[in-house]
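Workshop exercise sheet. Pairs work together: one partner reads the sequence aloud, the other fills in the structure field after running the prediction. Swap roles for the next sheet.
Pair: D.N. / O.F.
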Amino acid sequence: MQSPAASTIGERRVRMTQWNNGGVRATSLTIEMGRCGDSYTVTLHGILDMSTAERLEGAIEAALGSDADRVVIDLDGLEFVDSTGLATILGATRRADGSGRLKMTRGTGEVAQLFRLTALDLVLPFE
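Structure field:
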């Protein structure tokens, strides 16, 4: 079951949480979207996996569909990324067509290590 999305001016927050026996299960992703000037930022917190990747795809599509000169995907708040999440991140890079408009942060901890181990740190448009 998903909790309702909350909206504020200039920023959209989407929280996806799965419920298990009345309690919150550990698989959740919060997506914050906002625009400041010519830059559109998508900030992620939590877990990017098969159950949350579709939400990120929608956020990326909205960001790339905007008229912002620069789109930044902030991965620093991610705790975990699975193969579906990696595919979603790679798909965003393909949709941006190498125009230089899309940038990403490297993430931290195990997420940053995952990019290094898979050599994606060499091909993704990290800042």
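Discussion prompt: The longest helix spans residues 53-65. What would you look at next?
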